[in-house]
Amino acid sequence: MPTAVLNDIRLYYEVHGQGTPLVLMHGFAGTAESWKPQIPDLSARYRLILYDARGHWRSESPRSADLYSHEVFAEDLRALLDHLSAETAVVGGLSMGGVIALTFYFAHPQRVRALILADTGPGFRNPERRATWTRSREAVARLLEEGGMAAFARSKHAELDYYTAPDIMLKHDPIGLAHVNRKVLVMPDSQLIDRLPEVAVPTLVVVGADDVDFLAASEVMARKIPGAAHIVIPKAGHGANVDQPEAFNRAILDFLAQRL
Question: Which end of the chain, N or C, is more open, meaning fewer C-beta atoms within 10 Å of its C-beta?
Answer without folding.
Answer: N
